[in-house]
Amino acid sequence: MLLNLEREKLSNLLTGYPTYGQIGDVIDAYEHALFGVYPRARYVVGIDAKILMFLQTLPEWFSDWVICASMPTFQSHRDPEL
């Protein structure tokens, strides 16, 4: 694992300002991919990526329904009399 000081320097270099939170998880994944004895083919970092990985295991019709239900609906601005 990188030292905390090196991790902070790397996160400042990547983003341009001090960050706290998930950037450490990303750095850990990169570090494991580069220096791990058995690196994984894919690394899932963050809650949004974990949700999408979960949706891939569900049937396609259900994951489509979940994604469509979470999308905003738009109303037409056309005149209904036309």
Structure description:
This protein is mainly α. The chain has a domain at 4-35. 57% of the residues lie in helices and 0% in strands. The chain is built from 4 helices and no strands. It has helices at residues 4-15, 23-35, 47-57, 60-70. The protein is elongated and about 65 Å long. The N and C termini lie far apart (66 Å).
How do the helices and strands line up, and which of them pair or pack?
Blueprint: H1 4-15, H2 23-35, H3 47-57, H4 60-70
What distinguishing features does this structure have?
82 residues, elongated, mainly alpha, 57% helix
Number of strands: 0
Helix content: 55-70%
Helix/strand/pairing category: mainly alpha
Number of helices: 4
In short:
This protein has helices at about 5-15, 25-35, 45-55, 60-70.
